[in-house]
Amino acid sequence: MKLAEIRQLEESRKDQMNVVHLIQEGAFYHAYDWSAWLMSKFPIGEAKNKPMAVTASKLKDEYINAFVGFPATSMGKYIPNDEIAEFKPVGDTQIDVVLNVDLGDATEEDIRKMVDEWKESLPLKQGKKKEREDREMSKETPRIVRITDIIARIVSIPMEDISPRQAYDILRDLRRDISAIF
Fold first, then answer.
1. Which has the closest alpha carbon to 53: 73, 78, 75, 76?
2. Which residues of the chain have pLDDT under 70?
3. Which CA distances in Å does 12 have to 5, 78, 81, 109, 112?
């Protein structure tokens, strides 16, 4: 699903003010904007004990894109069946979850304002320039020369706590280190 479609889905709420739209992207489920706000404001499952990390970035049109995510294999940890009213697949890559939460007398406009204020308060993701600097620094780090060190790194990866971008970076570094050995 494209970002424009996700934005439209999140903006056309009507009677779905307590619905989390989960979008499957690869091996992860992501909740964007209003859905991410719901998941961070009303944590359930594992998120009660350890809040989900929110990623926010400002797009070219000054729109702030905010999302939370978790591995698809961890769905039961983050959204257990006993805490939701309804759990229904919408398509191949979307699941809607109706949360049992009390939004009080808040109107759609009230909640939209709260969501926008929440998004504005989030720290924004670093730009490409910082990512390039980090990448160049990682090139200077000494390469691992033993396969047992690489296996130890793989085993110690906290899969439930990393973003898809972090997983990609870890995989890229592991491929680089393995190719240096062989």
1. 78
2. 85, 126-145, 182
3. 11, 25, 26, 12, 11
| Distance, CA of 3 to CA of 155 (rounded, Å) | 33
Cross-sheet strand order for the sheet of 94-99: 55-58, 64-71, 28-32, 19-25, 94-99, 84-89
Instruction: Look up residue 71 and give its amino acid.
Output: P
What's the Cα-to-Cα distance from 105 to each of 17, 108, 110, 142, rounded to whole Å? 12, 10, 9, 58
DSSP H or E segment with residue 22: strand 19-25
Please report, as a single letter, which amino acid is at residue 49.
Answer: N
- Whole-number Cα distances in Å, 110 to 2, 45, 119, 137, 177: 27, 26, 14, 45, 51
Length of the chain: 182
